[in-house]
Each structure stands twice: as C-alpha cells, then as structure tokens.
Design goal:
Length: about 350
C-alpha cells in the first residue's frame, strides 16, 4: 500500500508542467517582495528607536544602529507617564470594541433575519451614510457633547458606538449572517425559542469569525485614534497614548529617538492581537458575502439543512405524546393452529399427509 501511494504521489508530481512551477515561483517571489516593501517602514521605526539622535537623519540611511542605544525605551516611557496613558487607552479601546461588536451584530441580525416593511430601504439609507465624511460631523458632535457636559470625559469616545456600531460593521456582519441557513432559525422557532434566543444561541456562535474581524477593526481604530481624544480630552490624567506621543513634538525641537521608541511600544499590542486572532480575522473576511456563490456554500448549506432536519425530527419525537400500544391480535393459546399458507384446518393431525 505504501508503494502504491508513493507511486501515485510521484505520478501526480510528474503531471505538473514546468509552467505551473514557474508561475508558482514567480507568484511567491512577488509576494515576498511586496511584503518587504510594506515592512520597510516598520524596520526603519525599530532601527531608529535604537539609534542616538545624531544617527536618525544620516544619509544614506544607516539601518543597523551603531551603537545600539537601549536606553531610549525607558527614557521615552518615563517622559510621558506611559502606564497612565496605557491604562486610559486600554479602557477606551475595550469599551469601544465591546460596544461596536454588540450593537452592530444586533442591528445586523435585524437586517438579515427579520422581515419588516421598509427593511431594504432603511438598509440602503444606512449604507449611504458611509459616503458622508467624518470631518463634517466634528463641529455638530462637539456642540452636542458640550451641552451634555461630556467634554474632558471618555463618554464621547465610547457612548456613540453603542447606538448602532457603525454602518460598515453592520454591513459586514449582515453579509455574514445571510450565509447562515434560515432552517436553523426555523428549527429554533419551532422549539419555542425567541428571537433574542436565536440571536444569542445560534447566530452569534456561528458568526465568531466575522465578530472577530469586526472586533479587530474596532480595537485598532480606537487604539490609534488621535483626533477624537485631541478634540474632547483636555486633562493630562485622561490622555491616551496617541496624545502622549505628541508630547515629544515641540515647536523648536522633536525628540525623534524617544518618539520612535514609544511608537514601537504602542505598535506591539496591535501586532500581537493580529497574530493571535489572525485565523478568525481572515476567515471572517473571506466568508463574508459568499451567499451569492452557490458552489462556495453548497456543502455548508446542505450540512446545515441536514442538521436542522434532524433537530426538527428529534424535537417532534420528543414533544409528541406517548400512546399505549394496542394489541391487534388475540393472545396465542396453547395448541392453537399455526398459520400455514393454503391451509385453514385447526389441528395438525387433520393436515393432509
């Protein structure tokens, strides 16, 4: 068996033409070159964070620091009170991410699984809001939050996302919810499950990849947000890391070596988050919007239909009332006649010999 499998694999390799290998090799080389182009700014950031101030703007650029100055990191973090800034940023980012995921998924469920008059029209109006520039809303929002007394608080950075979660996030989750077969929700409704139960027990567990993608987007946006804290935060005790990095930029001088070191520390959590949730993030982006592709969803839909049919049958069998079994024939007495085809006599002695 091992020899046969080895021969089959060798035959499969031999069937590949040299053009296929050349195309694959060229594609991999292009991908490696593009990845290097995108990583050059980060490499320069890390290199500059380890240089003395005089070596940062040397031309041609010196990629390897000489000498390596590790003192830039503790000096930069002590200059801006990094622990306080990190605590504020983590609190705002986590509250912002929770609000985006919960509110957008709730709205997306309504647009994907509920039927009500004007649903598609309201959804189109919601999508049209994505074409409105955010800078247009800055002054009206500032005036509204000023009347509410929210200036110099975290409320303007957190509370608004709990009222919808953003049009793009609703659109992303709605497209993913449409790929979940409706038979699962119908089976749950037959069992007496409410819409809130279907949303929490069926839809959300099946939409983990899309929820992870939306959560990563929201966390990165809030973690790197500079304009929002700049407008609404005034006190030093409530500033975020993005505002703290601005403390290295002065009118007459910019401490570039400290700025680069603090930027590296600020970037590390986002890189770690992406590597930890990379599988869910890519899966959520790839699977979103596959409802229109019958070949892509045929297997999953067929499996879901079979599971839902089995669940409905099991539910019907469990909920059906039990009935006593009625005896349709009389109890057999000792010495009674055996049922032999073609013979109706009562006793074996009378059978023809």
């Amino acid at each position: 068996m091992a020899q046969m499998s080895l021969r089959g694999s060798l035959a499969w390799v031999q069937r590949r033409s040299w053009r296929w290998y050349a195309g694959r090799g060229t594609l991999y080389i292009l991908l490696i070159l593009m990845s290097l182009v995108f990583t050059i700014p980060f490499i320069w950031l890390v290199s500059s964070s380890l240089k003395p101030p005089a070596q940062i703007w040397v031309y041609p650029p010196q990629w390897i620091p000489n000498p390596v100055r590790l003192e830039n990191y503790p000096e930069a973090l002590s200059k801006i009170n990094f622990l306080q800034l990190a605590a504020n940023t983590i609190f705002v980012s986590c509250a912002f991410t929770f609000g985006v995921v919960s509110a957008s998924s709730f709205c997306a469920y309504g647009f994907a699984k509920l039927r009500f008059p004007g649903r598609d029209l309201i959804f189109m109006v919601l999508l049209s809001t994505t074409m409105l520039p955010g800078i247009v809303l800055m002054i009206p929002q500032f005036i509204m939050f000023k009347y509410l007394g929210w200036i110099d608080t975290f409320n303007p950075l957190i509370v608004p996302v709990y009222f919808g979660g953003g049009a793009f996030n609703i659109f992303l989750l709605r497209q993913f919810f449409l790929t979940i077969p409706e038979e699962l929700s119908d089976a749950a409704r037959i069992d007496g499950c409410s819409e809130f139960g279907i949303y929490g027990r069926i839809i959300l567990p099946l939409a983990k990849p899309a929820l992870a993608a939306v959560g990563i987007f929201a966390f990165l946006f809030s973690w790197n947000d500079f304009m929002g804290p700049l407008i609404y935060i005034n006190s030093e005790a409530k500033k975020t890391i993005a505002l703290g990095l601005g403390g290295f930029i002065n009118v007459y001088k910019t401490e570039w070596h400290w700025l680069m070191a603090a930027s590296v520390v600020m970037t590390l959590p986002t890189i770690l988050l992406f590597f930890v949730a990379q599988r869910y993030f890519i899966q959520g982006i790839v699977l979103t919007g596959m409802k229109g592709d019958p070949q892509a969803c045929a297997g999953s839909k067929a499996a879901a239909r079979s599971r839902s049919a089995a669940a409905m049958a099991l539910s019907a069998s469990v909920s059906a009332p039990t009935r006593p079994i009625r005896r349709t024939t009389a109890p057999r007495r000792e010495g009674a006649a055996h049922s032999v085809p073609g013979h109706t006599r009562a006793h074996p002695e009378s059978w023809p010999g």
